[in-house]
Design brief:
Elements (H helix, E strand, L loop, with lengths): L1 E12 L2 E13 L4 E5 L6 H8 L7 E6 L2 E2 L5 H11 E5 L10 H10 L5 H14 L15 H13 L5 E5 L7 H16 L3 E5 L3 H4 L4 E6 L2 E7 L7
Helix pairs in contact: 3-4, 3-5
């Protein structure tokens, strides 16, 4: 499903080039639940951004769903992103001036889906996430956990094959965090490929594989032991 070969990224500085990622070779299969970990500045979010087709400034080869991403222009990459990938962010990224229902509809509106079908998809997601009663509320009327739940609902509204989550529980207390991680596990069991960036060992235990980064390099790639699963 995902294969990166010798992917590298640098940025310029007064002192010269700074390496953010070095010789990344990585394969992720369909329906895996992968965690990317490492200290601050290790390259975790950069790697997630490249996988999510949000970053153009890298070298190497990237195969996504049999597409040669490294040979696609920005427009084709954006189309691939919208069709197959959903994002969940630590800071929720909900639009303050839109209701819950309207926020969930946003990613669907970028796709060639008739309005009536979009409305049905949003209604189904509201019911599935048990937030029908909050559909007309605005983000500032929700708790942090509720906002993140809406963020996850928005990410899965279009039935993406891949969900990318960047510190998805960083602003939540432990009960809310567990609820979100349990939701990710159910989605994964239903066939969704999930890749999360986290500092949390507890969150990592929900997945099946942990990739450790340090100074832009992959330093380990291990399976989560059965006994470690929460």
């Amino acid at each position: 499903m995902i294969q990166l070969t010798n992917v590298e990224k640098t940025i310029k500085s007064p002192a010269g080039a700074i390496w953010l990622l070095r010789r990344i070779n990585l394969q992720i299969k369909e329906s895996e639940f992968v965690t990317i970990m490492g200290p601050s500045g290790a390259g975790k979010t950069t790697l997630l951004s490249i996988i999510g087709l949000l970053d153009d400034g890298w070298t190497g080869e990237y195969h996504l769903l049999e597409k040669l991403v490294h040979k696609l222009d920005r427009k084709r990459r954006a189309e691939l992103n919208r069709k197959h990938i959903g994002f969940v962010f630590q800071s929720y990224h909900l639009l303050d001036n839109l209701t819950v229902q309207e926020n969930i509809d946003v990613p669907l509106s970028y796709r060639d889906i008739p309005r009536a079908q979009r409305a049905a998809m949003v209604a189904d997601i509201l019911d599935r996430f048990q937030i029908v009663g909050k559909k007309d509320l605005y983000p500032n009327q929700l708790s942090g956990g509720q906002q993140q739940l809406v963020g996850v609902a928005r990410a899965v509204a279009g039935n993406p094959q891949i969900i990318l989550a960047d510190e998805p529980t960083g602003n939540l207390h432990s009960d809310q965090a567990r609820e979100i991680m349990e939701l990710f596990r159910r989605l994964n069991q239903q066939g969704t490929t999930i890749i999360q960036v986290t500092h949390s060992e507890v969150n990592a235990s929900f997945g099946s594989r942990i990739i450790q980064l340090k100074d832009g390099w992959i330093v380990s790639d291990t399976k989560v032991a059965e006994s470690a699963v929460v």
